[in-house]
Amino acid sequence: VIQPAPLYDTVNDIATQILANEKIMYNLTDLRTQDNYTFEHSVNVCVLSLMTGKSLGYTRDQLLALGVGAILHDLGKVKIPFEILNKPDRLSEEEFSLVMEHTRHGHNMIKALEYLGEVPATIAYQHHENYDGSGYPNGISGHQFNEFAQIAALADRFDALTANRPYRQAFPPYEAYEMCAGAGNYLFKDMFITAFLYNIAAYPTGTLVELNNRMIGEVTETKKGYSLFPKVRILLNEDWTPVPRQFEGPL
User: Fold this and answer.
1) Are 8 and 68 in contact (CB under 8 A)?
2) pTM score > 0.85 for this model?
3) Is residue 211 a contact partner of residue 229, using CB atoms and an 8 Å limit?
4) Taking every pair of C-alpha atoms in the chain, what is the biggest distance, in angstroms?
5) Which among 137, 160, 124 has a CA at the least distance from the CA of 2?
6) Residues in contact with 65: Cβ distance below 8 Å, sequence separation at least 6, in sequence order
7) Is 174 in a helix, a strand, or coil?
8) Nearest-CA neighbor of 168 among 87, 63, 51, 70?
9) Which residue out of 54, 77, 87, 223 is catalytically annotated?
10) pLDDT per residue over 154-184, tens digit each?
11) In the structure, how many helices (H) and strands (E) does the chain have?
12) Is 77 a catalytic residue?
């Protein structure tokens, strides 16, 4: 049984921290763990969704509804056999059909809890739909794809791409960033992608990068809104020998 008070307290705490910190930046090295994937994934999706909602100017009530829906978006997976969810090989058609049902299960479970409202139920139901109608369970498109569900779906897609799964290795953050950037008005409405990527560090702090001049550096900071232009500490020359004196500059 989902207890409403602790749930809203948790989302409210997350929202409060995000709203109070203008410089907050999503950094995968801070949030990603490999244990309890579904739980950690749900928290990450909540954080990413709230940051996007903040960038869009959502009210406190809108953020709470979005956050609750985002943290519960995969609730229906409790109805799916664990061995199917974590199968290391390609799913059969029958198995994939069972997995797709988690959206309906989640919707029905949340709808039964009337105190949670319509938005969280809609997010659970639509978070695998696509703007062009190619998603599931109903293949809806355009304005039928609820904006709160689009935000949670985008956060879900990005976080899933950057996680190690039984059937594939995680994509580097910059590759996931590029995949999402290329999905404007295709998988998601462009305005939501713009708001989402505003908060994403394509090269998280600590990432080693090779510059155009073949020098090697370490990312030390990414300013909000400048996701592709982090500050880098130069460590190695183009021949991979240590630089005489380390220095910082933009990528």
Assistant:
1) yes
2) yes
3) no
4) 65
5) 124
6) 117, 119, 120, 148
7) helix
8) 87
9) 77
10) 999 999 999 988 888 999 999 999 999 999 9
11) 11, 4
12) yes
